[in-house]
Amino acid sequence: MSTLQVSIYRYNPETDSAPYMQEFQVETHGRDLMVLNVLELIKEQDSSMAYRRSCREGVCGSDGMNMNGKNGLACVTALSDVVKNNKLVLRPLPGLPVIRDLVVDMGIFYKQYERIQPYLQNDEPAPAIERLQSPEDRDKLDGLYECILCACCSTACPSFWWNPEKFVGPAGLLQSYRFLADSRDTATRERLADLEDPFSVFRCRGIMNCVAVCPKGLNPTRAIGKIREMLLANAT
Amino acid sequence: MSNLRSLTFDAIIIGGGGSGLRAALELAKSGKQTAVLSKVFPTRSHTVSAQGGITCAIASADPDDDWRWHMYDTVKGGDYITDQDAAEYMCSEGPKSVFELEHMGLPFSRFDNGRIYQRPFGGQSKDYGKGGQAARTCAAADRTGHALLHTLYQNNLKNNTTFLNEWYAVDLVKNANGDVVGCIALSIETGEVVHVKAKATVLATGGAGRIYASTTNALINTGDGIGMALRAGFPMQDMEMWQFHPTGIYGAGVLVTEGCRGEGGYLINKDGERFMERYAPNAKDLAGRDVVARSMVMEILEGRGCGEKGDHVFLKLDHLGEEVLGKRLPGIVELSKTFAHADPAKEPIPVVPTCHYMMGGIPTNVHGQAIMQDADGNDQIVNGLFACGEAACVSVHGANRLGGNSLLDLVVFGRAAGMFIEGALNEGIDYLDASESDIDAAMARMNRWNESGGGESVPALKAELQDIMQNSFGVFRQEDNMKDGVQKLAELRGRIAEAHLADKSNAFNTARVEALELDNLMEVAEATAIAALERKESRGAHSRYDYPDRDDVNWLKHSLYFPAEKKVGKRDVNFKPRTVDTFEPKVRTY
């Protein structure tokens, strides 16, 4: 037998006065399933279980959740990567309001993303073809543009937990640097000016939880360091 | 009982993938009241999974490239039921759309001269097939769909598009004249149901690959727009045409881009033989996808498949070296390690043809206007209804889509629909309001689920539907087997009509969404099955043992499926491009 013990955070605002943990037994038949597959099997037992999912291959960022204490994507986390002592505990991403079960309200996360003006700004008239960019300049965007907005990083960040309204957070800052680093973007000065307060960037304490959990292997802390350098260079 | 709250917009775009966001961007820039209604946050849409690139003659890899060559490839790739006016529009307007994306910030990979990187893809040629393999697919590494979708979302933010994220469109609302005047929509977060009123309703709901048990498609690809249009009585075109991508990861179904073969990878059988050299001596592994998928199945059926069961083949990439893999195909390396437990730098990836793309859909003209037929078989515009992207059948893909043409389709026809609707709104659109009974009609199926007191469960019925489609409507098809499938689907429809929604709660009730999606899968599956049975020939992706040849006398036509009678008619293919000579049907070889 290969029965996995799964403990899941449950909360339905219509019927529950408080959240609770519910226990499920899932027969894996010895397969090294992804956590998302386990959730699908649980939903067949209990159709009221709520979670988000879409691409099931780690590129859409829907199913970020906390699995045995660590944030990640359920669809690309194999049981062998995360299960200890045959036990799996699933909780919603920490620090965001829970809508139901594993579904969190990502409003504040998206607001911080929008705040950094996540679009290319270039005040020169566009040419008839593409803007040219050297491969070396394009390389500077690697490790930045691949972000899938899953919020695993920001919701693992103590600084974001304390100041979600004022600290942009690792995901937003990674995207901020993605445009600061883009040779085609001409709004560097304005972008930096908007970040020049004690909270937006400087609340990062270099804890690096963001790096530890990013399912795409990205490094927001490094990007934040680069923004700091630009801000400091600007100030002197 | 229709005391629903209503939301009013000039245009409602249902679907937040590439085509919906491109249409929305055009309308938002024009200042029209535009809303995108999407069942997922837009960057979770399936466009995000597109890998290899967007095919377009931007003349970067080859300064002499010509959109007419791309058009030729597209028409040939579609096995000549591609509408030539539409292919002409897409291929000639394409460069403008790709350059726009670059100006919006899409992080394309680059050549040393700073221009956009282009790689070879299947079915591409220079000089109308006479000049050898072309390299026409513009790429951002192997994450082009992700880069494109995020760029479009970002630019919609910039232009203040209204988003109704995590709202689910239930059904179209038609007025007494049969005009489409919006939809019924459900807020997934709160359970509130509203009537969205709009002068233009755009179905940009993407594909429906989840009708098959094995698919590269996201779990959300349930053909919601197709289901809505069929329930509203509108016909579907070429629904028998489903693309099976040659390289889905064996077991998982996850896509491995054709770009792997574009970069020099190739398929091998259990003997290590590069078998595509036998089936397509010139293009080899870069023949049309239908050709490659069939060749793989032949290898497996003839006992040359790989693995214990001999039921897949291998995609060999190790000879490309870690540097090329890391630079050009980093996402594939990641997916292969995760889902096939194979490091492509060291060992081949087990792959098998996997359902990937719906060439058929809602028939439209190049402006995205939905089309139906009048009693005499003439095209007639459906007032108020538009479609673009995979949900539409314009038809640029005919019987088989070329790799990289889907992303181009999204942006070119999303933009075209946006521009047309802007013009129509400027001229003034005035349709009769929906009556209470019109709205009740659109509420019927949701009320049915909400009132269900017992019956079978949604996941089990869905699995059954997917097995029927997989077994009877796969790469190779045959009369008896399809008849059996059609009959099983008819029986399944009856059971789905009495299935049970156990959870009636309001807040983020994903069981309700999955129940509503099941109705749409049913509509798409049945349209596919009946159209497939009716087309008695082999063309493009539709390949029959019992009718192995293309039949241009009877079937150089679109099929048109009419839901009320469940009958299949025909519609003429367009052979009249405006600026180039017609590409006459020829024997299709690679």
Automatic annotation (TrEMBL), chain A:
List the pathway annotation.
Answer: Carbohydrate metabolism; tricarboxylic acid cycle; fumarate from succinate (bacterial route): step 1/1
Question: Mind listing the UniProt keywords for this protein, alphabetically?
Answer: 2Fe-2S, 3Fe-4S, 4Fe-4S, Electron transport, Iron, Iron-sulfur, Metal-binding, Oxidoreductase, Transport, Tricarboxylic acid cycle
Respond yes or no to whether keyword Transport is given for this record: yes
Q: Name one GO molecular function term.
A: 3 iron, 4 sulfur cluster binding
Q: Does the keyword Electron transport apply?
A: yes
**What Enzyme Commission number(s) does the record list for this chain?**
1.3.5.1
Highest taxon above the source species: Bacteria
4Fe-4S ferredoxin-type domain spans which residues? 137-167
Q: Name the GO terms of the biological process aspect.
A: respiratory electron transport chain; tricarboxylic acid cycle
Q: Which cofactors are required for activity?
A: [4Fe-4S] cluster; [2Fe-2S] cluster; [3Fe-4S] cluster
Reaction equation(s) it catalyzes: a quinone + succinate = fumarate + a quinol
* Record-linked Pfam families: Fer2_3, Fer4_17
Supply the InterPro entries for this chain. 2Fe-2S_ferredoxin-like_sf, 4Fe4S_Fe-S-bd, 4Fe4S_Fe_S_CS, Beta-grasp_dom_sf, Helical_ferredxn, SDH/FRD_Iron-Sulfur, Succ_DH/fum_Rdtase_Fe-S, Succ_DH/fum_Rdtase_N
What family name appears in the similarity comment? Belongs to the succinate dehydrogenase/fumarate reductase iron-sulfur protein family.
Q: Which PANTHER family match?
A: SUCCINATE DEHYDROGENASE [UBIQUINONE] IRON-SULFUR SUBUNIT, MITOCHONDRIAL, SUCCINATE DEHYDROGENASE IRON-SULFUR PROTEIN
The UniProt function text for this chain reads: Two distinct, membrane-bound, FAD-containing enzymes are responsible for the catalysis of fumarate and succinate interconversion; the fumarate reductase is used in anaerobic growth, and the succinate dehydrogenase is used in aerobic growth.
Q: What is this protein called?
A: Succinate dehydrogenase iron-sulfur subunit
Organism, as annotated: Litchfieldella anticariensis (strain DSM 16096 / CECT 5854 / CIP 108499 / LMG 22089 / FP35) (Halomonas anticariensis)
From TrEMBL, chain B:
**Cofactor: bound how, per the entry note?**
Flavinylated by SdhE, about 5% flavinylation occurs in the absence of SdhE.
Q: Does the keyword Cell membrane apply?
A: yes
Where in this protein does the record say Tele-8alpha-FAD histidine is found?
46
Which Pfam families does the record cross-reference, listed alphabetically? Answer: FAD_binding_2, Succ_DH_flav_C
Q: What is its EC number?
A: 1.3.5.1
Q: Which residues form the Fumarate reductase/succinate dehydrogenase flavoprotein-like C-terminal domain?
A: 463-590
Q: Where is the FAD-dependent oxidoreductase 2 FAD-binding domain?
A: 10-407
Q: Which NCBIfam families match?
A: sdhA_forward, sdhA_frdA_Gneg
Q: Give the protein name, as stated in the record.
A: Succinate dehydrogenase flavoprotein subunit
Q: Which organism is it from?
A: Litchfieldella anticariensis (strain DSM 16096 / CECT 5854 / CIP 108499 / LMG 22089 / FP35)
Protein's gene: sdhA
